[in-house]
Design goal:
Number of strands: 5
Strand order of the largest sheet: 3-5-4
CATH class of the largest domain: Mainly Alpha
Distance between the termini: 43 Å
Oligomer: single chain
CATH architecture of the largest domain: Orthogonal Bundle
Number of domains: 3
C-alpha cells in the first residue's frame, strides 16, 4: 500500500508549472509590497497577507511532493535538493514581509492585527520573534546557507540510514525489521537482535557522531547570531510555551522515575528473570507475541475512532481509501513513522513501517491521530495550521488511548495483563524515555566544543540510568544507541513534546472518562480544529487546565499510577 501523490501533482510537469507560478507571484509580491507595509490601509494589508499565505502554501505543496518522493526512496536525494534550492531562492522574495511587519510602530501593528482577526495569533507570535530577528541581508545569508548547514547533515543522516542493513540469522534486515525483534517472545532472539543492531551501528559511529556534532555547532552558531539564551529556547518559542513549563514537566517526570523501577522489578518476576537487560524492556508477557497485521490493525483503529467520533472514522477511512498511507518497510525507504500535514488544500500523508507487532497497531493509531488533527485544522489556513509540537502530539497519543481501550475488553486475564504491560511500556517510552532524550540533549548542547564518541556514550548512559535505576541492566551494547535517534538530528529538543503530549493526554483522557462524553468530544474536536491559531495555554484552558501550574502534570502522573495499580492487581489475581 503506497502513497498516491496525485492529490499534490499528477506529474512533474504540473509541479514545474506551480514552481514557475510561485516564483512569478513572489517577485510581484516583493515589488508591490516591499517597503510599503507602513503605508497600507487595513484592507490592503489584509489582501497582502492573504497573498503571502497563498504563495507560501503553494511552496509548501511543492516541497511536500519533493520530500515525500525522497522519504520513500533515498535515491531521490538530488531531486529533493533541487526543489530545496528553488524554494530557498523564491523565499528570498518573501523574506521582507515578516521583518518589515516587526519594524512597524506598535500602534500600526495593533491596527493591522485588529483588522485581520484570522491572522491574529500568527501576527502576535511574529512580534514575539522580533528580538531574535536579524537584518534582511543577514537573514538572506542564512537562508542561502540553509541547504549546506544543518539541513545538509540531516539529509546525510537520512540517506545513510536508509541504506543500512543489519545481519541477522543469515539475512539482511532494515532498521525497522531488526528493532521489531526486540519485542519477540524468545529471549535469545531479542538478545541476538540487540547484538546484531549494535554490531551494525558500530562501524558508522564516527560518521553519526560527526553529524550530531555538526547539528550541535550549527544550532549554537544560530543561537549566538540571534541572541537566544540557550540551544533549546528557539524550540520553546516555536512550541509557544515557556521554559518554566518545560522545566516543570521534566521535574515531574524525573520525580516519578520510581514508577519505572517498580514496573520493571515486577516484570522481571513475571518473566522469571533475576536481571532484565535493555533487550528485555519490550519482551511480551505471553509465550508468543501478539501479531497485528495491517488489516487487523486498520479494523481496530477504525472501530475505535468511530466509537469516539464518527468524524474521526470518516477522515481515517479517507486515508485508507485515497492513498494517504505508505505502509510497509522497503529498500531505501526512510525508517520510523510520521504524518506530513502537506497543505490545507490537499490532505496529510502518513508514512509507516508496519511489521505486524502490537506496537505497529499503536503507531498506526498515533499517526492517524496526527492526520486527523492536521485535516481538521485545514480551515484555519496555511499560516495558522502549523500546530506547535506540544499540542500536535496530543492528538496522536490520544488516538493511541482510544485504540488501547478498544482492544482491552473481551480478553483473557493473561491477554489483558500482557496488553497492560505493553501499554505501560509505551507510556514509559513516550514520557520518560523522551525526557531522557531531552536531558541527554541538554548535556550534549551544553558541552564546550565537539564531543568524542566516548563522551556521547557516557552522557547517554548517565541519563538512561536515571530512568531505569537498578531495574534494568544496561549493557555495553546500549552505549551506542543514541546514534540512531533521528530527532536529535532533524529537530533538536523535539522530544519533550512527546512527554508533554503524553501527560496532557492522560489528564484529558481521565477527564473524558469522568465527564459528559458528548460535551468532551465536542470540545476536543474544536481543540483540534483550532490548529495553531491559538496558544497551547489558551487551548488547554478550555478543559479547565493550566499548563503553567506544576500540579497540572501530576494529573497525568496520577493516571499512570492508576494503570500500574490495575496491572499489579492482575498480577496478584
Amino acid at each position: 500500500m503506497n502513497w498516491d501523490l496525485s492529490a499534490l501533482y499528477e506529474n512533474e510537469k504540473a509541479l514545474e508549472a506551480d514552481l514557475l507560478d510561485a516564483k512569478n507571484r513572489a517577485i510581484s509580491f516583493e515589488n508591490v509590497c516591499k517597503g510599503k507595509l507602513k503605508e497600507l490601509h487595513v484592507n490592503e494589508f489584509l489582501e497582502s497577507i492573504r497573498e503571502y499565505e497563498s504563495i507560501n502554501e503553494k511552496l509548501g505543496r511543492i516541497m511536500t511532493y519533493a520530500f515525500l518522493k525522497f522519504a520513500t526512496n533515498s535515491d531521490n536525494g538530488s531531486f529533493y535538493a533541487r526543489y530545496q534550492q528553488e524554494h530557498s531562492s523564491i523565499a528570498e522574495h518573501l523574506l521582507f514581509f515578516e521583518l518589515e511587519f516587526n519594524k512597524l510602530a506598535k500602534p500600526k501593528q495593533e491596527e493591522l492585527i485588529a483588522s485581520s482577526p484570522h491572522y491574529k495569533f500568527y501576527l502576535e507570535s511574529l512580534m514575539e520573534e522580533k528580538p531574535y530577528q536579524l537584518s534582511q541581508k543577514e537573514e538572506r545569508i542564512l537562508l542561502k546557507k540553509e541547504m549546506t548547514s544543518g539541513s545538509a547533515f540531516s539529509r546525510l543522516f537520512d540517506e545513510h540510514f536508509s541504506r543500512l542493513t543489519f545481519s541477522y540469522d543469515g539475512k539482511k534486515l532494515s532498521e525497522e525489521e531488526i528493532l521489531s525483534k526486540l519485542q519477540d517472545a524468545n529471549r535469545e532472539v531479542r538478545k541476538n537482535a540487540a547484538n546484531a543492531f549494535t554490531k551494525g551501528l558500530k562501524p558508522h559511529q564516527p560518521l553519526l557522531g560527526y553529524i550530531f556534532n555538526m547539528i550541535k555547532t550549527d544550532l549554537a552558531n544560530e543561537c549566538e547570531l540571534r541572541g537566544y539564551k540557550n540551544a533549546e529556547q528557539p524550540r520553546h518559542l516555536d512550541n509557544k510555551i515557556t521554559q518554566k513549563s518545560v522545566d516543570a514537566l521534566i521535574k515531574s517526570a524525573e520525580d516519578s522515575f520510581h514508577l519505572v523501577h517498580e514496573y520493571y522489578a515486577l516484570k522481571a518476576k513475571l518473566l522469571g528473570f533475576d536481571t532484565l537487560y535493555e533487550y528485555d524492556r519490550y519482551a511480551p508477557l505471553e509465550d508468543k507475541a501478539s501479531e497485528y497485521d495491517f488489516e487487523a490493525s486498520k479494523k481496530i483503529v477504525l472501530e475505535a475512532f468511530n466509537q469516539f467520533n464518527p468524524k474521526f472514522f470518516e477522515i481515517a477511512s479517507m486515508a485508507f481509501e485515497q492513498g494517504w498511507i505508505d505502509v510497509f518497510p522497503k529498500n531505501k525507504k526512510r525508517g520510523g513513522a510520521f504524518s506530513h500535514p502537506a497543505t490545507p488544500s490537499t490532505h496529510p500523508y502518513v508514512l509507516l513501517n508496519h511489521t505486524n507487532t502490537r506496537r505497529d497497531l499503536f503507531t498506526l493509531a498515533h499517526e492517524l491521530g496526527h492526520a486527523i488533527h492536521q485535516y481538521l485544522s485545514r480551515d484555519v489556513g496555511y499560516l495558522a495550521s502549523d500546530t506547535p509540537l506540544t499540542t500536535s502530539e496530543t492528538a496522536s497519543v490520544f488516538a493511541e488511548m482510544l485504540a488501547f481501550d478498544a482492544i482491552k475488553e473481551n480478553l483473557t486475564l493473561d491477554e489483558k495483563r500482557s496488553l497492560y504491560a505493553s501499554k505501560i511500556e509505551d507510556i514509559f517510552s513516550t514520557l520518560y524515555r523522551q525526557i531522557n532524550f531531552t536531558t541527554f540533549e541538554r548535556k550534549v548542547h551544553a558541552h564546550e566544543g565537539e564531543l568524542d564518541l566516548s563522551t556521547f556514550n557516557r552522557y547517554w548512559m548517565e541519563e538512561s540510568q536515571k530512568m531505569f535505576g537498578k531495574s534494568i541492566e544496561l549493557s555495553s551494547n546500549y552505549h551506542l544507541w543514541w546514534s540512531y535517534i533521528p530527532h536529535f538530528i532533524h529537530s533538536p529538543f523535539y522530544c519533550y513534546a512527546y512527554s508533554y503530549g503524553q501527560l496532557l493526554v492522560l489528564a484529558l483522557y481521565g477527564l473524558y472518562k469522568k465527564s459528559d462524553k458528548a460535551l468532551f468530544v465536542q470540545n476536543y474536536t474544536s481543540f483540534l480544529a483550532a490548529g495553531g491559531s491559538q496558544s497551547p495555554k489558551e487551548l488547554i484552558k478550555k478543559f479547565g487546565f493550566d499548563i503553567e501550574d506544576e500540579q497540572f502534570w501530576q494529573l497525568g502522573i496520577g493516571e499512570i499510577e492508576i494503570l500500574l495499580q490495575e496491572f499489579k492487581g492482575m498480577c496478584d489475581a
